[in-house]
């Protein structure tokens, strides 16, 4: 697939999708959320695809660390935080 045929994702759209998904499916596993995001963006799911949205250790600058800010892992599954609810319904 050439670059010209790839679907461009609007800035913030993936965050809004993940927040909406967790709102609709609270307590989802990491892989379920990422599989849904890949399907939504028309990309094949594979190891590491979109993993930066759930990583708190390697992303720079700190503004791009989403776990703990928008969603939190508890008992092995992901939940929205109070701030994450603010992304629900975002365009």
Description:
This protein is α+β, with helices and mostly antiparallel strands. 31% of the residues lie in helices and 9% in strands. It is built from 3 helices and 2 strands. The protein has helices spanning 13-24, 30-41, 82-85; strands at 71-74, 77-80. A two-stranded antiparallel sheet has the order 1-2. A hairpin with a 2-residue loop joins strand 1 and strand 2 (77-80). The longest helix is centred in the first third of the chain and has 12 residues, at 13-24. The relative contact order is 0.21. The model has no long low-confidence stretch (mean pLDDT 86).
Helix-strand layout with pairing:
Blueprint: H1 13-24, H2 30-41, E1 71-74, E2 77-80, H3 82-85
Antiparallel strand pairs: 1-2
Helix pairs in contact: 1-2
Which segments are poorly predicted (pLDDT under 50) over 5 or more consecutive residues? none
Helix proportion? 25-40%
Distance between the termini: 27 Å
Q: What letter string, H or E per element, gives the SSE order?
A: HHEEH
Number of helices: 3
* Integer average pLDDT: 86
| Sheet with the most strands: spatial strand order | 1-2
Radius of gyration: 13 Å
The gross shape turns out to be globular
Structural class: alpha+beta
Strand content: 5-15%
How many β strands by DSSP? 2
Largest sheet: 2 strands, antiparallel
